[in-house]
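Page 47, continued from p. 46.
Same chain as before, 194 aa.
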Amino acid sequence: MSKLSLCVYCGSRPGELPACAEAARAVGREIGRRGWRLVYGGGRAGLMGVVADAALEAGASVVGVIPHSLMERELGHQKLTELHVVDTMHQRKTMMAERSDAFLALPGGIGTFEELFEVWTWRQLGYHDKPIGLLNVAGYYDALLGFLRHSEAQGFMDAAQKALLQIDTDPLALLERLGALAPLASAPDDYRKI
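Result:
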């Protein structure tokens, strides 16, 4: 039996609201408390560093995946359980997805948006059946959620597609749901393929 691996997407910047760092810290601590593994983009800055440090402090294994270009800018976290340095962003995202049983997006910028929408699209197309969560910290994603409702009203997505995204404002409640929905949490590590 293997421990659940949660892929967390989040900002390489801290953001303006202290609530964002507090939520990242809570997620990292809870990953450790549950005996899970954190998989993330391997950075030490911003919310990425906060969630990784909190998970490490709580005793979790932390797997980072980062491209060479970001390592050269000295943005890689050097204290992780595993740090994989890859050539491209595509390799980074593939490795992160394959090493994970579930996905969670915290506040972030365009990289976080892109990663979230990619795994959500893959789920909708049937490339994986892993749960995906969106943590709406201090209303950060309110405008995005409004746009998704608009997209549904305009006929570009439907309720079933939208329902594939688990949304909550409470980190612990969302982690509980993702853990319960993760189909591969007890599968061997080599079975986590996208």
